[in-house]
Design goal:
Number of helices: 4
Radius of gyration: 20 Å
Protein name: NfeD-like C-terminal domain-containing protein
Order of helices and strands: HHHHEEEEE
Keywords: Membrane, Transmembrane, Transmembrane helix
Largest sheet: 5 strands, mixed, barrel
Number of domains: 2
Organism: Deinococcus aluminii
Shape: elongated
Length: about 180
């Protein structure tokens, strides 16, 4: 079995599974576009991390393999087949990373946004009236760093509860562990 067929089978299989069963995880490398521990003070790190999301890597593998298999069937030689496979895989993987990053920046995709109301978390960067802050919530077993706004005066480390989500930004209130 050659590398192209292996990539097509593994990458294509994972791509089909993610389409059928939903896809909520990444490698912890920033693939959700929500920082997964990525240092957002250094944009180059965040940019690189978005290219290494599980979605992008699976897309690369599937289409690298597909192009290699099709190139081989079309009679391309080893180097020509490799070039076609690399260009195709990089183009599709790059487009996947770009599309999901763009959708998240516009608030069109978020990690379980509809199920965040009522969750509690901790303030990482306090929100201000003119800019959102950042909070940490545990979602599906992973710590998510999400943008948040609040009418309450919050400080780093304060406990908060999510009361809503609008355009990908959480609305949070100070929380003392009791009913609101």
């Amino acid at each position: 079995m050659d590398i192209y067929l292996l990539c097509l089978l593994v990458g294509g299989g994972l791509l089909v599974l993610s389409l059928l069963g939903g896809h909520h995880g990444d490698l912890g490398l920033g693939g959700h576009g929500l920082d997964h521990g990525v240092d957002t003070d250094h944009p180059d790190t965040a940019d690189l991390a978005s290219w290494l999301s599980l979605r992008s890597l699976v897309s690369f593998a599937a289409f690298f393999g597909l192009a290699g298999v099709v190139g081989g069937a079309a009679g391309l030689s080893g180097p020509g087949r490799l070039v076609v496979a690399l260009v195709t895989g990089l183009a599709v993987g790059g487009f996947t990373a770009f599309a999901f990053r763009l959708a998240r920046s516009r608030g069109e995709v978020s990690a379980a946004a509809g199920r965040l109301a009522g969750r509690t978390g901790k303030v990482l960067v306090p929100p201000a009236p003119d800019r959102p802050g950042k909070v940490a919530l545990t979602v599906a077993g992973q710590i998510e760093h999400l943008l948040a706004r609040s009418d309450d005066a919050l400080h780093a480390g304060d406990a908060v509860i999510v009361i809503g989500v609008e355009a990908g930004v959480l609305d949070v209130k100070a929380w003392n562990g009791r009913e609101l």
